[in-house]
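Example (one chain per record):
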Amino acid sequence: MMIMNPPVPAARPRRSLLFVPGNRPQRFAKAFTSGADIVCMDLEDAVPAAEKDAARQAVRDYLQSAAPPGAEVAVRINALPGAEGDSDMRSLWPVLARVNLLILPKTESVAELKRLSELLAASATAIVALIETPLGLLSARQLLVDCDCAAMVMLGGADLSAATGASMTWDSLYYARSHLLLCAAPRQLGSIDVPFLDIDDSDALRAETRRIRELGFTTKAAIHPKQIAVINQELTPSAADIQTALNIIAADRAAGGAAVLLEGKMIDAPLVQAARRTVGIAGALGLIAAGGAGVTN
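Predicted structure:
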């Protein structure tokens, strides 16, 4: 049966996600003060097999010490089912209350999502389905529409490109990005795009972030703190965008939901939905005055 209920909206913006290796605890504090909206403490690909146990201990110790400042906490575990993933979950259990998002790598089946959802049933931790294999991409509708376990979806471009023999370029990933967004749309899932790998090319990062925003992605992943400012800037609505959205919502309300002209342009339900999304982001960022009356300075 198709489930169309959208997930509960995030209470804060989710424009940027910064990965930090779980075996590098000296980097945790810097990651959480980088300005990233989400910090992902990585127990999977970033951690060599010999350092998995040490990484689990470091992540657990950090989360036990205090609630990290400035960002939501995500943890990328190892695959489930699997011995490493099971060990990750046992280690995280005492600190699960401080984990906002759990990222499930190489998600390919509804059974995997349901198993993790059952494990998290007593917590407020939400699931991010990381789709990074051909089978995962082909199963995206079942994973994201027919199943309501995931709150967000993330594209894993490096693994997908390696599996298909493609280069990790805009053109080669265009279908994967578009397909994933279409599958995320019915339940209005937040969507996380792949990291931009050249940490020194801020102009190219800005251009790619602008393109993924135009496609419909809500979040861009990053591998270095220096990328966060560009990502946040590109995924923050401008004052003009916010004011236009407020005008559209006001015109729709005045028309009682009927199609209406605003500044010579037809305003209908899809434009109103997009305007509400913009206002929601602006509100979470504190860019709208109390009551949504206008844009703050």
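Caption: The longest helix spans residues 239-254.
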